[in-house]
């Protein structure tokens, strides 16, 4: 059986596919977008920071990937109307959608529960769970028309192992597991569509730097180490596997 953590993807494994990547401006989202493009996909870059999206866009073009698209959008403020328009735009410009990687990450800061505020919790729940749910639902008609479609939610290890001071972030990320399992169960009559939760664990990223500033980056796997897993779960190699929670660092 193929080890998804060390999957050796064929160069054209995603050729002809259109993939939406949220949080594509930096970290794991940017690394995934570049890898998907290098393996043949047309990537739609979504994020709230236009300059960061532009850097990812330029990196894809410099690497010779298919011309991407960039859509500035803040998941903390996204509306039903914007999601509907996103679907219309993708259908009009690309005619298809074969996958979504939810890499956008809603996080404020570490603090005790007594210091956390309602609006902070609401924002983290919207970015980490509610907006991805609504995007999946809004783009489902396009995904179900694809011969092989995949949705990946990037999780966080503190959702599976809650600890002090992770508060609303941990609780909101814990909701991803239920969302993925419910969706997989409801879509079990659509074998062309799968959804899974991939938990990177400790890995070099801007988020890890923000939460563990004293940690030596050299002690962690490089961001690119997770690329084989991101390719495996987005490509046809993972057909028939849905509703799973996958811990990358548990190798």
UniProtKB/TrEMBL annotation:
Keyword field: Oxidoreductase
One MF term in the entry's GO annotations: oxidoreductase activity
Similarity remark: Belongs to the short-chain dehydrogenases/reductases (SDR) family.
PANTHER family for this protein: ALCOHOL DEHYDROGENASE (PTHR42901)
Gene3D superfamilies according to UniProt: NAD(P)-binding Rossmann-like Domain
Annotated protein name in UniProt: SDR family NAD(P)-dependent oxidoreductase
Source taxon at top rank: Bacteria
InterPro entries for this protein: NAD(P)-bd_dom_sf (IPR036291), SDR_fam (IPR002347)
Pfam families, per the entry: adh_short (PF00106)
């Amino acid at each position: 059986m193929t080890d998804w953590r060390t999957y050796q993807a064929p160069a054209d494994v995603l050729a002809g596919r259109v993939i939406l990547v949220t949080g594509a401006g930096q970290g794991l989202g940017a690394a995934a977008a570049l890898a998907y493009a290098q393996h043949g996909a047309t990537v739609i870059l979504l994020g709230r920071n236009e300059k960061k999206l532009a850097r990812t866009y330029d990196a894809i073009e410099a690497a010779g990937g298919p011309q991407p698209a960039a859509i500035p959008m803040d998941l903390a403020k996204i509306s039903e109307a914007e999601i509907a328009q996103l679907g219309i735009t993708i259908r009009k410009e690309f005619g298809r959608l074969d996958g979504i990687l939810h890499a956008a990450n809603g996080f404020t800061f570490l603090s005790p529960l007594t210091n956390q505020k309602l609006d902070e919790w609401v924002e983290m729940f919207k970015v980490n769970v509610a907006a991805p749910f609504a995007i999946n639902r809004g783009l489902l008609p396009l995904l179900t028309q694809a011969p092989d479609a995949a949705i990946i939610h990037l999780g966080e290890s503190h959702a599976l192992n809650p600890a002090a001071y992770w508060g609303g972030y941990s609780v909101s990320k814990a909701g991803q597991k239920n969302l993925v399992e419910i969706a997989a169960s409801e879509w079990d009559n659509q074998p062309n569509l799968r959804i899974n939760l991939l938990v990177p664990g400790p890995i070099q990223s801007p988020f890890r730097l923000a939460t563990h500033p004293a940690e030596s980056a050299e002690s962690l796997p490089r961001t690119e180490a997770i690329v084989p897993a991101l390719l495996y779960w987005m490509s046809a190699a993972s057909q028939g596997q849905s509703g799973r929670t996958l811990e990358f660092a548990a190798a």
